[in-house]
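Quick question, first post here. What does this chain look like in 3D?
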Amino acid sequence: MRSWLFQEEHDLFRRTVRHFLEQEIAPAIDLCETRGSVPREIFRKVGQQGYLGIPFPESVGGLGGDILSQAVWIEELCRLGSGGIAAALTAQTVIALTPIWRWGSEMQKQQYLNPGIRGDKIFALAVTEPDAGSDVAAIRTTAYKKPGGYLLKGSKLFITNGTQADVVVVAAKTSPDKGRKGISLFLVDSRWAGFRVGRRLEKLGWRASDTAELFFDGIMIPQDHLLGECNRGFYYLIDEGFVYERIAMALSAVSLAERALSDASRYAQEREQFGRHLAEFQVIRHKLVDMALDLVKARRLTYRALYLFAKDDDAKIAAAMAKAYAGEMARRVTDDALQIFGGNGYMMDYPLQRYWRDARILSIGGGATEVMYDIVAKSVLQEGRKTDGGRDGS
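> Answer (accepted):
Ran it through. Tokens below.
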């Protein structure tokens, strides 16, 4: 099913990753879910294997793998069935370390990239604010230019890894009057004066990852901690950062749904009611088929977006399609899986309740379904205008 996209080396890598995760990470799921965060030891353990630096070159401590290898890692990580652990680890590498590699200076790469890849430091990306979710241009956190650097004031909300992050990549307005053209990215050390962690936020799902609100009470940021060019932050996030984040979210949704379908299929063949296995009832068999069809469609859309992104083609629309469909699909499939489990699925002793809770964020985080639809709609309408123009000129 994956042969058209992944090569033999990816299959070998998948087996290695799966073995590591099942042996080293799966036993810690209950601990992480209970404590509400991924322990630093796990970041280090994953970092020691190089899995936090898969797409980064060996010169900075990475594995030197391609984007498909990182996709394999995301799939297998999410296949474990703990969206929280997956969220914490992917927030480190996909969301926070990638912009440092892409746009950071040599000093920034040497100082921050290597410790992040090793798992010695925990990273977070801080964009979302109380009044700015999907509308990134509406952020209010501001970095005022001062001699030698910038003075950062504002707050962020829903920040994954926020309570224990050592370094935060922060999006802030540097030219407030320029809207989206006035946003920049900064590297902020959590030890600096003025950095403050607010509430630790309790969530419905992804409970194995910590989420927090952050406050920047007049932090003085050195000039050399501006990430990339001033006022280019929005484009760094939108043009590439958010595109791959959406593909990663779609991959997460597909893998979670795959795990839920697998568990439901096995349960249906083991559970007996009225003297027959559940799988012998047509209504259950057909429900499983509907789940499988939904999953296949989501995977196809996701792999198409991943293929385009890996080729450096414009994957913005494909990623939005994949994110929108896969996020909603995961909700449907996990809900149907829980239904097949019946009362057991509603009990905390079974993992279905966790799949169901973790799936809910997948149509919200990384860009809500409605926003994804709007992105796709603009493209569809634009193509329609091109077609009309062709007919008018014929």
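The beta strands are 123-126, 142-146, 149-160, 167-173, 183-189, 195-200, 211-222, 226-227, 272-273, 276-277.
The mean pLDDT is 95.
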